[in-house]
Amino acid sequence: MPRPSPPAPPSPPSRPSRLLTALALCVSALALPACDRNAQAAPEGIVSLSAAASNQQDDDPQKMPRPDGPRLGAVQMAAPIFERPDRRAPKLGYLRAGGTTVRAEKPVALDDCQGGWYRVLPAGYMCAEGDATTDMKHPILRALTRRPDLGKPMPYPYAFVRAIAPNYYRVPTKDEQLRYEMSLERHLRSYKKLRTKWDELNVGANDVPLDALGNAAGEAPEGPPAFSDNEIFGGRGDDAIPWFFKGGRQIPNIASFKVPQYAVITNRIARKAGLALIDSFMGPNDRRLALTTDARLVPTSKLKPARGSTFHGVDMTKGWELPLAFVHKEGAYKYDLSKGALDKDGKIAWHSPIQLTGRSKFIGKTRLVEAKDGSWVRNDEVAIAVKPSELPPHAKGTTRWVDISILNQVVILYEGPKPVYATAAATGRDGLGDPKTTFSTVRGTFRIREKHVTTTMDSHESGNKFELRDVPWVQYFEAGYAIHASPWHDDYGRPRSHGCINLSPIDARRVFMWTDPPLPADWHGVNASAATGEGTIVHIHP
């Protein structure tokens, strides 16, 4: 019962540094690190990226892929793309399960790969055996047709686990649900009574209109869209049990949690875990089941829809100038200081951007900064983006670089000396502490090493013992430190992470689409290399 994929989003603007001609990337086979220096990322189909690549030439046109050529698809959570037709070669990137990409008509080799090594676009080689296949009728390719929507800040529908939930391997009968879920009848009575409240939708990141660069192009609506229950939890209109779950499970296990084919349940998911969803349908016991990206099932009565923050930064090319500020405290006020006192002059909306003049003063021990409209705001209620007194050496020409201030809790995108985007962030909760012994963000000048549309992080990122599957827009730049979206909170402008740079989904996508290396079409992850151009500079300072 394959379903059509959604229309492809518009491609980000091209630029010379992003030419994909003869693209070659580099990646290692280790699991991705989480933000904490000691953390171990969960192995849910993750391919970590790292190593230099080179190009190989072949004069046989049938061994070279063309845009309208046949395709090859991923049948495991991550199907690696290699630098050379050799399993020992550096990995260039990967496809996500169910995804396909263009390949050559004929393989270049059969060495250690009975299905054949095929060149793929825009570069690299994939083995059509095990992780990938040329059979477009393979059950995984027919079943997992929903791709991440690269045009939206939240690339999948997301949810958080409200109560410990089972990860079902196949559709459970009513008796099996009662067997595997403790106090289920009581839970279902509560859900029936409180369902409207529990499943209530908020206005989310995907409701904010964006321009071609990913800048917010308008305000968020007052209310969320009118979604059906099916759509809320990842479905696209059909509540029937999918063909691949009828009469038992008809597709192989691609999750890292291995079970026999006759299993009913794989494991359980802890409360507060985050999940990306790709379908939903009604099952036995009048319960809706959601399909996760690794082809497992979760009852939606145990889930809370998560739509991400509507917060976003400002386009610095549209009249904004440094310094500017973002309100990070609810209930903040602006003040009239004409009488030499802190006279409140109206509230300021949480997350509002404020154009500053650069002037500041103290009233007693309270430091205030002046807004362009003549009002004043408390320094401790805003995150302030300022231009450094001295730009770093790389701030020349049109070189793109990301500036991150730990004390100010802001991220500024620069092209040479010119700021083009600014926003509030949430860095390591221990501020300027030693990253080796505290939950502080590493400082220094780095480059983007690898980029993932989504990837799994563990509990260390947010300080609780639960996993975060399919975290969006992840960009690693040093060891386990990354810039990424954080759909689980809305606290930007104040430190709170275990070392990573947390951004809102809108801002994380804006940064991801702006940095190098660009993500090749169809790929789920890519790495910086000599062939793609170096990764964008990340400059982190107090």
TrEMBL record:
<feature type="signal peptide">
    <location>
        <begin position="1"/>
        <end position="41"/>
    </location>
</feature>
<feature type="region of interest" description="Disordered">
    <location>
        <begin position="52"/>
        <end position="72"/>
    </location>
</feature>
<dbReference type="Pfam" id="PF03734">
    <property type="entry name" value="YkuD"/>
</dbReference>
<keyword id="KW-0573">Peptidoglycan synthesis</keyword>
<keyword id="KW-0961">Cell wall biogenesis/degradation</keyword>
<feature type="domain" description="L,D-TPase catalytic">
    <location>
        <begin position="400"/>
        <end position="541"/>
    </location>
</feature>
<dbReference type="InterPro" id="IPR038063">
    <property type="entry name" value="Transpep_catalytic_dom"/>
</dbReference>
<feature type="compositionally biased region" description="Basic and acidic residues">
    <location>
        <begin position="60"/>
        <end position="69"/>
    </location>
</feature>
<keyword id="KW-0732">Signal</keyword>
<protein>
    <recommendedName>
        <fullName>L,D-TPase catalytic domain-containing protein</fullName>
    </recommendedName>
</protein>
<dbReference type="GO" id="GO:0008360">
    <property type="term" value="P:regulation of cell shape"/>
</dbReference>
<dbReference type="GO" id="GO:0071555">
    <property type="term" value="P:cell wall organization"/>
</dbReference>
<comment type="similarity">
    <text>Belongs to the YkuD family.</text>
</comment>
<dbReference type="GO" id="GO:0016740">
    <property type="term" value="F:transferase activity"/>
</dbReference>
<dbReference type="GO" id="GO:0018104">
    <property type="term" value="P:peptidoglycan-protein cross-linking"/>
</dbReference>
<keyword id="KW-0808">Transferase</keyword>
<comment type="pathway">
    <text>Cell wall biogenesis; peptidoglycan biosynthesis.</text>
</comment>
<dbReference type="InterPro" id="IPR005490">
    <property type="entry name" value="LD_TPept_cat_dom"/>
</dbReference>
<keyword id="KW-0133">Cell shape</keyword>
<dbReference type="GO" id="GO:0071972">
    <property type="term" value="F:peptidoglycan L,D-transpeptidase activity"/>
</dbReference>
<feature type="active site" description="Proton donor/acceptor">
    <location>
        <position position="484"/>
    </location>
</feature>
<dbReference type="InterPro" id="IPR050979">
    <property type="entry name" value="LD-transpeptidase"/>
</dbReference>
<dbReference type="GO" id="GO:0005576">
    <property type="term" value="C:extracellular region"/>
</dbReference>
<feature type="active site" description="Nucleophile">
    <location>
        <position position="500"/>
    </location>
</feature>
